[in-house]
Amino acid sequence: MKHLLSLKDLSQSQLLALLDLAVKIKASPAEYRHALDGKSVVMLFEKPSLRTRVSFDIGINKLGGHCVYMDQQNGALGKRESVRDFAGNISQWADAIVARTFSHVTVEDLAEYATVPVINALSDLYHPCQVLADFLTLKEATGSLQGLKLAYIGDGNNVTNSLMLGAAILGAQMTVICPEGHFPDGFAVTQAQQLAAVHGGSLLLTPDVSALEGADAVYTDTWISMGDSTKLSDIAVKFAQYQVSKELMEKYKVKYFMHCLPAHRGVEVTDEVMDGEGSLILQQAQNRMHAQNAVLVTLLS
Ligand code: CP
Ligand code: NVA
């Protein structure tokens, strides 16, 4: 494992090893407090962030490393100088690059031209760090990832793509429920279907909300991702039946609710579900740090 750009680059054993390491780091942080001694990580963000930025910064600090945060005011990627030159220069000082970009091609270019590991901290196509934390959270909540049934409902986006790939690699049963015209990227679907076939998992895509029945957890995300110019007023009616409410969860007997956050309360999910008993949202947020630290320790040791 040289970089983490998409979960599709991981074998099942690599993915399970990352989750196991995250469990260990979470349980015994003192054992890992020198894991990144003397190491520096540059974080490049083209888009806003709360969880990713803070969890990487504090996480790197807890491992004994140091991080440098760069937003667009300090040098827009590819504008003042090429992505290639950015990657080449940063590689002279830093031991890893964490990047949140509009286009996935930019993360791929960084990885091609950097001589240090590159970690995708969200692109238009994938959000692997989020989904590692999500599977860690599901493992904790349900006790085991074996036989997991996960449902995603709402807009098919970067988070959906990574969830489909992660679920497929783990051999889980995944259902993706989206309004017509809002299904996830076809390339990611094909990759996930192929991986699911190899690992004994399944992937169902449907506009039918009743496909939620029997899922262990229902996951949703914003209906309009960063960089998408769609207006909420133009899709609100079409998406209304895909809002996660207590009634919906009770009707289809779903115990757990998940969201990568930031959430739009009263839009894709109700307050009652966000703050309800089955809500895993803060556990997911906490696990971002442990999962990312597992990635850093793996890539930098
Ligand atoms: N879930 C997530 O990536 O949150 P941020 O956009 O706040 O980093
Ligand atoms: N799909 C969302 C995820 C935010 C963490 C976005 O890309 O804006």
TrEMBL record:
Q: Which domain of life is it from?
A: Bacteria
Identify the residues that the record assigns to the Aspartate/ornithine carbamoyltransferase carbamoyl-P binding domain, covering every copy: 2-140
The record's listing under Pfam families reads: OTCace, OTCace_N
Principal cellular location given in the protein's record: cytoplasm
What does the record give under GO molecular function?
ornithine carbamoyltransferase activity
Q: What class of enzyme is it?
A: transferase
Q: What is its EC number?
A: 2.1.3.3
**Known catalytic reactions:** carbamoyl phosphate + L-ornithine = L-citrulline + phosphate + H(+)
InterPro entries of this UniProt entry?
Answer: Asp/Orn_carbamoyltranf_P-bd, Asp/Orn_carbamoylTrfase, Asp/Orn_carbamoylTrfase_sf, Asp_carbamoyltransf_Asp/Orn-bd, Orn/put_carbamltrans, OTCase_ArgI
Cellular location of this protein? Cytoplasm
The protein's name in its UniProt record: Ornithine carbamoyltransferase
Which keywords accompany this UniProt record?
A: Cytoplasm, Transferase
Q: Which residues form the Aspartate/ornithine carbamoyltransferase Asp/Orn-binding domain?
A: 146-298
Q: Where are the transmembrane segments?
A: none
Q: Which residues bind L-ornithine?
A: N158, D221, S225, M226
* Involved pathway(s): Amino-acid biosynthesis; L-arginine biosynthesis; L-arginine from L-ornithine and carbamoyl phosphate: step 1/3
Report the sequence similarity comment from the record: Belongs to the aspartate/ornithine carbamoyltransferase superfamily. OTCase family.
SUPFAM superfamilies in the record:
Aspartate/ornithine carbamoyltransferase (SSF53671)
Q: Where does carbamoyl phosphate bind?
A: R100, H127, P128, C129, Q130, C260, L261, R288
Q: Which PANTHER family match?
A: ORNITHINE CARBAMOYLTRANSFERASE, MITOCHONDRIAL (PTHR45753), ORNITHINE TRANSCARBAMYLASE, MITOCHONDRIAL (PTHR45753:SF3)
